[in-house]
Amino acid sequence: MSKTEKCFEIAFSPTGGTKKAADILISGMGAVTADVIDLTDRNADFSEMAFGEGDICVVAMPVFGGRLPQVAAKRLGQIKGNGALAIAVAVYGNRAYEDALLETADILKGNGFKVIAAVAALAEHSIMRRFAAGRPDEEDIKVLEGFGAKIAAKIEADAGDMTDFEIPGNRPYKELKVASLMPEVDGSKCIGCKLCARICPVGAIDEKATTETDNSLCIGCNRCIYYCPKKARSLNPEKLAALEEKVGAALSGRKESELYI
């Protein structure tokens, strides 16, 4: 790929880690980002979006409990590939990506994309932020850029069936479990700016009552916590500590990014 070739980025990245991994991969491919399709935008009409042969799309999704968030999967499933090349990316917080990478690839294939590579990448855990803290770090950047170069070489070679490779995971996918920790609000800090309500991917926060969250809609992505300018939103520290104690062993040690091509 030439440095002037354009690559589309499709991402569901509530706190930025998933998009950062995709950005690094695209840079390693030697491409520039032509356009970013933000799957967290609940007001966008994704059914109107379509690609075609000659287009290259890096599709990055976060891993929630080994699966994709349902809302992200649904929105991705509305975008038409029409023969466009796609690189499936699943970004996880140092536990496991389980069926999420396969699920991403299956959605893309079902909508007419040609999946030519798949990447499992690391980012700081969006709930328990001390796990995989600061990732993708400098070492991750080198690895992901290297993956990008290999993907670009495959596209440049254009030899044989570029979709003939295996992606780990299981069908049927594992059961999707809803996040157990929901944001809490300190009303004394909230200034009513309504940013949290505007950026919530699922509309779980009413602009007229921003100190409240509809837990039946909330997916626990922590976007509202991450972007709150006054840190008025947070997770209950005792519940967070209990969760870290429960699952900490599974998140210990350093996992590494993986490329399937």
UniProtKB/TrEMBL annotation:
InterPro entries: 4Fe4S_Fe-S-bd, 4Fe4S_Fe_S_CS, Flavoprotein-like_sf. Pfam families: Fer4 (PF00037). Keywords: Iron, Iron-sulfur, Metal-binding. SUPFAM superfamilies: 4Fe-4S ferredoxins, Flavoproteins. The keyword Iron applies. PANTHER family: FERREDOXIN SUBUNIT OF PYRUVATE:FLAVODOXIN OXIDOREDUCTASE-RELATED, IRON-SULFUR-BINDING PROTEIN. Residues 181-210, 212-238 form the 4Fe-4S ferredoxin-type domain. The keyword Mitochondrion does not apply. It comes from the Bacteria. This is 4Fe-4S binding protein.
